[in-house]
Design goal:
The complex is a heterodimer. Chain A is α/β, with parallel strands linked by helices. Chain A contains ten helices and twelve strands. Chain A has two domains: 137 residues, Response regulator (Rossmann fold, 3-Layer(aba) Sandwich); 146 residues, 3-Layer(aba) Sandwich (Rossmann fold), CATH 3.40.50.2300. Chain A has a six-stranded parallel β-sheet, sandwiched between helices. In chain A, strands 7-6-8-9-10-12 form a six-stranded mixed β-sheet, with helices on both faces. In chain A, helix 5 crosses helix 6 and helix 5 packs antiparallel against helix 10. Chain A is globular. Chain B has two domains: 71 residues, no CATH class; 266 residues, ABC transporter involved in vitamin B12 uptake, BtuC. In chain B, helix 3 crosses helix 13, helix 4 crosses helix 12 and helix 7 packs across helix 8. The chains are: A alpha/beta, B mainly alpha. The interface between A and B is large, with 51 and 58 residues.
């Protein structure tokens, strides 16, 4: 009896077809793009959302179709890429360095599909020369340390404190790159300043834990830190909350995060993931896509700091001028920015 | 006699079916709330899992890990211990295997090395589980608390060891194991091409059989279950309950640890930080839904693996959180429907008898 009722209800509901229901069939005439997100997933308001923005813009401006997959555990990354490649996508993008091995393998198996990896890590051979990725795979690399260097210098110049804060998400080589650049920037303008660096955790969850972000930030502000740079995905939302609560400053990451705490966001170290993803999609659509290593640094405007009408009052003109000088020096190669902690002075 | 057998069969089979129907119904409503058609979403889910060889391979891969973590939790529960630490025990087992593999010389046949890898993974996971067991046996520290806390400690330690000492530059994984890698199922069945399913699945099936024999046919297993059902009575009957406790946790951790071989030996051939995040916790659900019976654990692992892989397949039309909600509904439905359906069945039989 009970089973009958349940079964009947289930069967009835199966046949309900809402008006807005979409069918996931692939239009063979359109340019189809597939994107697999990193563990942080959509809604982190930084890294993954930036990739989403780039894809969304491509949908609007270029008329391409984009499909997204959010993976769970370790084997889901390859599975996501494979599902999209098997469906006949023209370009499949993996967001995050952790996709590197999976992308290499898939690019070899599907030579007629284009692949792109944001933060793809380029391996080196025994002589230290970079091993180029497969010909149908574009490695989109960012010089986060260069942008972090600039915001570090800025933080030291306007911080009114010898202590500067850094909060990272998951402790990993990629995030240590932000820390290394930031610390080098701080020490460049203030050699005796101290950088208090803390990480929210050691698992991918550390990129989506605003509670821990807030706790760490409050503790740092209490120690006399006035500016904190976060590189921690949605964990950083807690850092902004702490900045609002204690009336201090925080520096955003990946996207312009001014709106998270207006008046308390000194600047943001913008990583042009959206532009890089859009660019890759555009080249696929135009038929000019080529594999290889693409580096986005200060020179390419792939990383930058935000300076606009929102935060101009927080940054004196003299500081801005000095910052622009440092920026030019980095581009010219006069300042060498370390990308690992070991190399930091 | 015949009637009793039928009653027993009904009580075993009907509750899970009712639970699945309830879950399917809640799924229908969720999909409708999201503005999609339930029939289409379920069709996608089936097509992406059991509907093609690759999807099936992925389901089998996930089933393998979940079988080990599910068995680990089930063994603990049979001894009356709630092991929440399968997550870190699994990682520790994988890490131990990965590090041992990276230090071996190349060219040794897998057959020779397999026992070594099983031992390494079992020791890795067993140390973590055994630590919680020893704390319980010696000082009465509650295993729920210690295993939860050990998750943080062990995962942090593994992350530190990986990042600071063992990682390959610019990645989060250790160097490739030099020998001892196991073949994928696609080597035997070419249709599985590309899927991560590998020979460790056979190991999982063997573990199911071994766990059944241990729990229901061996003296140690009998003591373990007795300690789980009624520790006081077991102690009175001559069972050293505190010894059973730490041994059960040691075994539980070792079984979870061996699950790490699925990724390290069978799939990527290296240990990657947080390679199976969530699979340990999902093992708790697998054990609950499988009612702590080894065969039930395997079937539940298949179900949860299907939902997990299906989440990717339906990701194009509904968010993957929908599948996570569905997994939660299955757990709640099984937990509530088992006693409820039994009560209904017994009530129906009584009224039929009078």
């Amino acid at each position: 009896m009970l089973m009958g009722v349940l079964l009947a209800a289930h069967v009835v509901l199966l046949f309900v077809h809402p008006a807005g229901a979409t069918s996931p069939t692939i239009d063979p005439n359109a340019v189809n793009i597939g994107i697999v997100f990193d563990v942080g997933g959509r809604g982190d308001k930084s890294f993954n959302d930036a990739a989403y923005l780039g894809a969304e813009r491509a949908e609007k401006e270029l008329g391409v179709h984009v499909r997204f997959i959010e993976p769970g555990d370790g084997s889901d990354r390859e599975a996501g890429l494979r599902i999209l490649a098997a469906e006949g996508m023209k370009l499949v993008v993996g967001i995050g360095f952790i996709f590197t091995d999976d992308l290499n393998q898939l690019a070899r198996e599907y030579p007629n599909t284009d692949f792109a990896g944001v933060d793809y890590s380029v391996a080196t051979d025994s002589a230290g020369n970079p091993i180029p990725p497969p010909p149908n795979l574009a490695a989109l690399k960012f010089r986060e340390e260069e942008g972090s260097f600039l915001v570090g210098a800025l933080a030291a110049m306007v911080g009114h404190s010898k202590k500067l804060g850094f909060i990272g998400g998951m402790n990993s080589p990629l995030i240590q790159k932000f820390q290394a650049g930031y610390a080098a920037g701080v020490h460049y303008v203030c050699p005796d300043c101290q950088v208090i660096a803390q990480y929210a955790g050691v698992t991918p969850d550390a990129f989506r834990n605003p509670g821990v972000g807030k706790e760490l930030a409050l503790a740092q502000y209490q120690q006399g830190v006035n500016v904190i740079f976060h590189a921690s995905g949605s964990t950083g939302l807690g850092v902004f909350e702490a900045a609002r609560q204690t009336d201090r400053l925080a520096i955003g990451v990946d996207a312009d995060q001014y709106s998270e705490a207006p008046g308390h966001v000194l600047t943001s170290m913008v990583k042009g993931v959206d532009a890089a993803v859009f660019d890759a999609i555009k080249r696929v659509k135009d038929g000019t896509f080529k594999g290889g290593i693409y580096t986005f640094g200060l020179a390419q405007n792939g990383v930058r700091y935000v300076y606009d009408e929102h935060n101009r009052n927080l940054i004196p003109d003299s500081v801005h001028a000095r910052l622009e000088q440092i920026r030019a020096d980095i581009i010219a190669g006069k300042i060498k920015v370390p990308s690992t902690l070991g190399a930091a002075p | 006699m015949n009637g009793r057998l039928r009653a027993q069969l009904e009580e075993t089979i009907l509750p899970p079916i009712v639970a699945l129907l309830i879950a399917a119904l809640v799924g229908d409503l969720l999909i409708l709330v999201y503005g999609q058609s339930p029939a289409a979403v379920y069709r996608l889910l089936i097509q992406g899992t059991w509907g093609n060889a690759y999807g099936l391979g992925q389901v089998l891969y996930k089933t393998t890990t979940l079988t080990f973590t599910g068995l680990a939790v089930a063994i603990g529960l049979q001894a009356g211990l709630f092991n929440i630490g399968a997550e870190s025990q699994l990682a520790a087992g994988g890490f131990a295997a990965g590090v041992v593999g990276a230090m071996l010389p190349a060219g040794i046949p897998s057959v020779v090395l397999l026992p070594l890898f099983i031992a390494a993974a079992a020791i890795g996971g067993g140390l973590v589980g055994g630590a919680a067991g020893a704390l319980k046996a010696k000082w009465g520290a509650h295993e729920v608390i210690t295993t939860i806390m050990l998750n943080f400690v062990v995962l942090a330690l593994l992350n530190y060891l990986t990042v600071a000492h063992f990682k390959v530059f610019d990645t989060l994984h250790t160097a490739d194991i030099r020998s001892g890698a196991l073949p994928r199922l696609s080597a035997v069945v070419p249709a599985f091409h590309g899927s991560a399913a590998n020979v460790v699945l056979v190991l999982a099936l063997a573990a199911v059989a071994a766990a059944w024999w241990y729990l229901y046919r061996s003296r140690a297993g009998y003591e373990l279950r007795a300690a789980g059902l009624q520790p006081g009575a077991a102690e009175y009957g001559g069972v050293k309950v505190s010894r059973v406790w730490w041994q059960a946790m040691l075994l539980s951790g070792a079984v979870a640890g061996i699950g790490g071989l699925n990724f390290v030996l069978g799939y990527k051939h290296y240990y990657e930080d947080s390679f199976a995040s969530g699979m340990g916790f999902l093992g708790i659900a697998v054990a609950l839904v499988g009612r702590n019976n080894p065969l039930g654990v395997f079937l539940a692992a298949l179900l949860f693996a299907t939902l997990s892989q299906g989440g990717l397949a339906v990701n194009a039309v509904v968010p993957k959180q929908m599948v996570e909600v569905l997994q939660a509904v299955v757990i709640i439905a099984v937990a509530t429907s088992v006693p409820e359906v039994r009560r209904l069945l017994r009530g129906a039989r009584r009224s039929a008898a009078t």
